[in-house]
TrEMBL record:
It comes from the Eukaryota. Its main location: cytoplasm. GO terms for molecular function: lipid binding. Residues 9-26 form the Cytosolic fatty-acid binding proteins domain. PROSITE patterns: FABP (PS00214). Coiled coil: none annotated. This is FABP6 protein. It holds the Pfam family Lipocalin_7. It is found in: Cytoplasm. It comes from Pteruthius melanotis. Keywords: Cytoplasm, Lipid-binding, Transport. One of its GO terms (cellular component) is cytoplasm. Belongs to the calycin superfamily. Fatty-acid binding protein (FABP) family. The keyword Transport applies.
Amino acid sequence: PKGTMAFAGKYEFEGDENYDAFVQKIGLPSDKVEMGRNCKIVTEVVQNGNDFTWTQHFPGGRTTTNSFTVGKEADMETMGGKKFKATVKMEDGKLVADFPNYHHTAEISGGKLVEISTCSGVVYKRTSKKIA
């Protein structure tokens, strides 16, 4: 199937759009807002068929890891550190997840990892370039 292993790799933050408006909408605490601004997050994706391990490495050594299987409920953590259950779906080669207060998609486009989160009409887009 199209895009089965397309996500595997390491990606480094390249740029984003609407960061401030989005983090205000989702209620991210101000210390986390500053920490995340233009943060050189490295996203590491390990994919084995429908099983994914999605790790974000933050400068300073902090990491967040979400492991999930497409179509099955999994324990997840938001960018604000909230834990919840969600089912990630695959639609048109995009991974789609509904977080408690936003809708998130991830896709590989032009060799880059493009993540889009939408909350109350605010669209946050983050682009990361492949480094490994």
